[in-house]
Write a structure and sequence with these properties.
The complex is a heterotetramer. By secondary structure, chain A is of the alpha/beta class. Chain A has 5 helices and 4 strands; from the N terminus they run αβαβαβαβα. Chain A has a 4-stranded parallel sheet with strand order 2-1-3-4, sandwiched between helices. The radius of gyration of chain A is 16 Å and the shape is globular. Chain B is an alpha/beta fold. Chain B has helices at residues 5-13, 51-54, 91-104, 112-119, 168-176, 185-200, 211-215, 223-228, 236-239, 287-306, 316-320, 327-346; strands at residues 16-24, 27-32, 58-66, 71-75, 83-89, 121-126, 152-156, 161-165, 247-254, 259-266. The model of chain B has no long low-confidence stretch (mean pLDDT 88). Chain C is an alpha/beta fold. Chain C has a domain at 202-322. Chain C contains 11 helices and 8 strands. The radius of gyration of chain C is 20 Å and the shape is globular. Chain D is globular. The model of chain D has no long low-confidence stretch (mean pLDDT 89). By secondary structure, chain D is an alpha/beta fold. Chain D contains 8 helices and 15 strands. The chains are: A alpha/beta, B alpha/beta, C alpha/beta, D alpha/beta. Chains in contact: A-B, A-C, B-C, B-D, C-D.
Chain lengths: 150, 347, 338, 279
């Protein structure tokens, strides 16, 4: 029994979450690039999908991601007012607000889904936020509630 | 015997999957019994039809393994050989199994998944002492005490059950239950009286004698528009119908362990997607055609193909339709087509 | 006044308006409710002749939202030669709200719609009564004074009216259809001016305060028995998409299986789609054949939209719904910050 | 009896792109097990449920003839999820196959008759199967005159160019090709199928007309055939329907009390006229 808990503990420590990240082409993707070019370290937990705008990210993407077994989803876009398409991120923000509240209401840990703004010049901020998001998701543990399993 | 249901369960549970009506989320459903105290026998009928025991809402057809891209192995289902007992089923629902059997063995290729399970299933039903106001099984040549679809029929005599073995399978099983006592002549007489009383208590009587002959030439009739005008197009009537069999097939992959399965799930002719071609053409594009298909399938195509009505008269669709599009009134309206025509001819 | 006399009064006034509308040829059809064939039901009816007006009824079981019949079915009925089909529609508050919102979304033209406004006095929570009666057959249900009386073969039960109406009706503030500024004559009969609705959402707050795990198990339990018949979707006046997201197969977003994650995602995304659009009619819960109660989700949507965007659906035909709009100054406390 | 939903496994032996737009491909499948191939006895006009396991299954008419031994061919147009999957297949991939299903062309009843084959566009696949079968040396003497009329939108859409060339060289078959609009370098006929049929004017005596194509083509061609005094029994048609199981269980392909997958897909016009027009 003792060894088992020890093993579990080990597993918990070594377990790294897999996070699906939708990054807006104009800001966050470039921000992630900058973080890489500037050699800022952040956890290798995210897998990036480049989208034209955070407004392109439909709630389907996020829920499908969670259902497919991703431990977390991040959507990152330009700061309000900086959208390449003027209002894409403002529209997206309303959607995210509702989705986040509904997920919480349904009893799915809201920390699994995170939204952030990061501009092309904010490599450091991007890395920090990814660190933070990874920390949150890691604390929640593997996604078993909503993902399909059989 | 009434308090001996538990005894029956314990005796049969090892060998059989023992299904009986159980309360689940406030709805009565046929479920595998884990505790005999859960069994509810003081009921009219279950909300979810017992077809789901042999034809579940979601069923695996087969499983497979892949090497990431291509299939390497197909794994057949091995759980079809289990023996099942369906306990406490009503005669109308028992009749639905006969219809399903006809349906699944129609054509050259038979549905072995269903038929294998059906073969291993023993139906132990309880006669209907007091039918619901929406029941109409006597109109489809059924009866609240109908024996023909069962292996064993129980009749509730108040204090005890009168047990009658009908098929060989049922008689064999009864012979095993040593603690059953021989029925007295008097009890048989009470059962007969109950049967008569039940038969007389039906409020709904529908004229379904020539319905297929009325329906067949009236495929294009304004009545279908009238019937479907309040239908909202949900699938309640067919999902909860004990004889509806339509299903959809889809593949599911588990990308983590390179496994997958092909499943079938209930589908219904009431959804537009059901018949939509890839080209965009849809033979049944509106509610009118879809409503018509449901009625015709049960009351016209079934008699033509199997010489039987595709309805068991359980009344579930009448009770649960969200907009109360009552099947009884639909049938009455259809019957009126005929009488109108006759009037015309005589005039 | 007792419930029956109220109902009688509503019924008479409603019939009178409908009769006049049909007689003066102001409408081609009247959509209303008529008596159902099973005790806990009513059924929608489409009337084209003045002679049938007496078939219209009002009782506390008229749970279907009739606005459903306008989109998308009725536009198809338009005869190009005769011009638009004019429809009279028996409107309780939530039907009125649905119509207003549908017109905001450009699905119907209010010019062609005449609301026969009635002061709704609540809809009985038939699923709750069914559950409490259990495996007995209800043969009759009527209201007497302040009680709901349910009768069967060998039992009779009484339920308090105020307690056994829909949860949404208990907190409803829009009993009769809202007055519309642009189409003053579109509402006949009873209608009310609604400026804003005060609501403290105590029921939602109570649920929200639960632990995540408790919420999950509650929702999971509640939705588990879903049979995917989509009656909730089909009865919803706001679900008028030609192709619902669960039906989309290029690509397949959500599979229509009975796995809990699939069922949950359907209800979650449907809720998402109804944000700022749901008119709180409770039809989805009333029609569910297995008795799933979706009221709580509906209420939560109302709360989100009210608190975040200060919007109430179907009240004001000139206000843009939140999901069709944006604002620089929205609250963004949920965003991840360093 | 075995579980009818389990497909037999085959490998993709060859992939041929059939048209210029590259949205129609022919897949040549070889059964992994000899016994499965031997059990797969079919006649022209039947179809099979072929599946890309993991993506799904779809009913496709068999394009090869039973006389072409060793493999089975399917011509697939890129339409939805599954067919797109087939288009992404590579040689050597595994494809599942169930069948053959349906009644097929009534080759026994056709014996001793003239055969008029009228095809339009991509629906030619089961007609190819039929003609290849009829032209086989073992079967050719059982049938009389064979005429093939095959129409397409443009020259890039013509399927099976190699077999068509072969047929043209033979003297026991007439092949008429047509395209909708004139095109540089096109030496055959120009115009829709129906007028071309009228122009050729086949005589109805002891003839069976096999018509397969898009609905509008079928409609116009049948009108022409009726004008030429073809009887309803002489006109054969192959129907399409959405299908899932192929064995008459999933329910969706019914027309009246008939299921297209077991009672069809081949119906004579006389049979079709008896059925409700819900297809």
């Amino acid at each position: 029994m003792v060894t088992q808990t020890k093993q579990n503990k080990n597993l918990e420590e070594t377990w790294e979450p897999k996070i699906l990240a939708f990054l807006c082409n104009w800001c966050s993707y470039a921000g992630a690039d900058l973080a890489g070019v500037s050699r800022i370290q952040y956890p290798p937990s995210i897998r990036v999908v480049r989208v034209p705008c955070s407004g392109r990210v439909s709630p389907y993407f996020i829920i499908k991601g969670i259902m497919d077994g991703w431990d977390g989803v991040i959507v990152s876009g330009c700061h309000p007012g900086d959208c390449h398409y003027l209002t894409g991120n403002l529209v997206a923000r309303r959607r995210f607000a509702i989705l986040k509240e509904l997920l919480e209401f349904f009893g799915i840990e809201p920390g699994r889904v995170n939204f952030m703004w990061a501009s092309a010049a904010e490599g450091e901020r991007f890395a920090n936020l990814i660190k933070k998001a990874t920390r949150i998701v890691k604390k929640l543990g593997p996604n078993t509630k909503f993902s399909k399993k059989w | 015997m009434k308090n001996e249901i538990g005894k029956l369960y314990i005796e049969l549970n090892e060998e059989f999957n023992f299904y009986a009506p159980i309360k689940d989320q406030g709805n009565l459903k046929f479920r595998k019994v884990l505790n005999p105290d859960d069994i509810v026998l003081d009921y009219y009928n279950t909300k979810i039809p017992p077809k789901e025991i042999l034809f579940p809402e979601m069923e695996v057809l087969f499983e497979y393994k892949t090497d990431g891209k291509n299939v390497t192995e197909i794994i057949e289902r091995k759980d079809l050989e289990y023996k099942n007992i369906i306990f406490g089923i009503r005669p109308c629902d028992a009749h639905s199994f006969t219809l399903l059997e006809y349906f699944f063995s129609y054509g050259d290729v038979k549905d072995e998944i269903f038929l294998k399970k059906r073969k291993n299933t023993l139906i132990m039903g309880i006669a209907c002492n007091s039918p619901k106001s929406t029941c109409f099984c006597t109109s489809i040549e059924g009866h609240p005490f109908m024996k023909s679809d069962m292996d064993i029929l129980l009749v509730d005599l108040g204090e005890k059950y009168l047990v009658e073995g009908i098929s060989d399978k049922g008689k064999k099983l009864m012979a095993r239950l040593k603690w059953l006592t021989d029925a007295k002549q008097q009890d048989v007489k009470i059962a007969e009286a109950l049967s008569k009383k039940a038969e007389e208590s039906f409020e709904t009587k529908l004229d379904l004698k020539d319905i297929d002959k009325i329906l067949d030439p009236n495929f294009e009739h304004p009545i279908w528009e009238e019937i479907s005008d309040i239908c909202i197009g949900c699938g309640t009537c067919s999902f909860l119908c004990p004889t509806c069999t339509c299903f959809d097939v889809l593949d599911q992959n588990n990308q983590y362990n390179n496994k997958g399965r092909r499943i079938r799930i209930w589908d219904t002719c009431q959804f537009s997607l059901y018949t939509l071609h890839t080209s965009g053409h849809n033979p049944r594009k509106s509610c009118i055609e879809r409503c018509r298909n449901r009625i015709l399938h049960k009351f016209c195509y079934y008699p033509e193909n199997y010489d039987m009505l595709g309805c068991v008269g359980c009344g579930r669709c009448i009770q649960l339709c969200p907009v109360n599009n009552d099947l009884r009134s639909i049938i009455e309206r259809i019957n009126k087509i005929k009488s109108k025509k006759e009037e015309k001819v005589s005039a | 006044m007792s419930i029956e006399t109220e109902n009688k009064k509503i019924e008479e006034e409603m019939r009178e308006v409908a009769r006049n509308l049909l007689r003066e040829k102001k409408v081609n059809v009247v959509i209303g409710y008529t008596k159902g064939t099973v005790p806990l039901s009513s059924t929608p009816i489409i009337i084209t002749s003045e002679n049938n007006v007496d078939k219209l009824i009002w009782n506390n079981l008229c749970y279907v939202n009739l606005a459903k019949y306008l989109v998308p079915r009725i536009p198809q009925l338009i005869d190009p030669e005769k011009g638009d089909l004019k429809v009279g529609i028996v409107s309780k508050g939530c039907v009125g709200r649905a119509l207003v919102h549908l017109s905001v979304e450009n699905q119907i033209n209010l010019k062609n719609v005449k609301m026969i406004g009635i002061p709704c006095n609540g809809i009985i929570n038939r699923k709750r009564i069914e559950k409490e009666i259990g495996e007995k057959e209800i043969l009759e249900l009527f209201t007497s004074d302040q009680d709901i009386v349910v009768k069967g073969k060998d039992f009779e039960a009484k339920y308090s009216y105020d307690e056994y109406i829909n949860e949404l009706c208990k907190v409803c503030k829009v009993k009769s259809p809202p007055k519309i500024v642009d189409f003053k004559d579109s509402c006949l009969g009873e209608c009310q001016e609604v400026k804003s609705v005060d609501d403290n959402f105590t029921d939602v707050v109570e649920f929200e305060s639960k632990a995540t795990q408790d919420k999950w198990s509650y929702i999971k339990e509640a939705l588990q028995s879903c049979t995917r018949c989509y009656a909730c979707r089909e009865a919803c006046p706001m679900c008028y998409c030609n192709l619902c997201f669960v039906d989309q197969n290029k690509p397949i977003w959500f599979e229509k299986t009975t796995e809990i994650s699939d069922i949950l995602s359907f209800h979650l995304i449907r809720a998402m789609h109804l944000a700022g659009r749901c008119v709180a009619c409770g039809a989805c819960s009333s029609v569910c054949p297995v008795g799933i109660d979706l009221n709580l989700i509906t209420r939560k949507l109302e709360k989100i939209v009210k608190e975040r965007f200060d919007f109430i659906s179907g009240i004001d035909s000139n206000k843009m719904p939140p999901m069709m709009d944006y604002n620089m100054n929205d609250r963004e406390e949920f965003m991840l910050e360093e | 009896m075995p579980n009818p939903y389990i497909p037999k496994l085959t490998t993709v032996k060859d992939i041929i792109s059939e048209n210029k737009v590259n949205d129609i491909k022919t897949l040549e499948l070889e059964f992994m097990k000899e016994e499965d191939y031997n059990r797969f006895e079919y006649i022209p006009g039947q179809f099979a449920e072929i599946s890309l396991i993991g993506k799904g299954e779809c009913p496709i008419g068999i394009a090869s003839s039973p006389t072409e031994e060793g493999t089975v061919k399917f011509t697939i147009k890129k339409m939805g999820t599954v067919t797109s999957g087939f288009h992404n297949c590579e040689i050597g991939d595994t494809v599942g196959i169930r069948g053959p299903f349906g009644n097929g062309w009534p080759i026994e009843d056709m014996k001793g008759k003239n055969i008029l084959v009228i095809g339009g566009g991509f629906a030619f696949s089961t007609l190819r199967s039929l003609v290849v079968y009829l032209l086989n040396e073992k079967h050719r003497r059982n049938y009389k005159k064979i005429t093939v009329i095959y129409g397409n939108r443009d020259s890039g859409e013509v399927l099976y160019e190699d077999v068509l060339e072969e047929w043209k060289k033979r003297n026991d078959i007439d092949v008429v090709l047509t395209i909708d609009r004139e095109e540089k370098g096109w030496k055959e006929k120009v115009g829709f199928v129906a007028p071309v049929v009228k122009e050729i004017g086949p005589s109805p005596g002891n003839t069976v007309a096999v018509v397969c194509g898009p609905p509008i083509m079928i409609k116009t061609t049948i009108a022409v055939l009726e004008e030429l005094n073809f009887k309803d029994e002489q006109i054969l048609n192959s129907l399409e329907m959405r299908m899932k199981c192929g064995i008459g269980k999933c329910g969706r392909c019914n027309i009246g009390n008939k299921y297209v997958c077991i009672d069809g897909p081949v119906f004579s016009l006389a049979e079709l006229k008896k059925l409700p027009s819900e297809y």
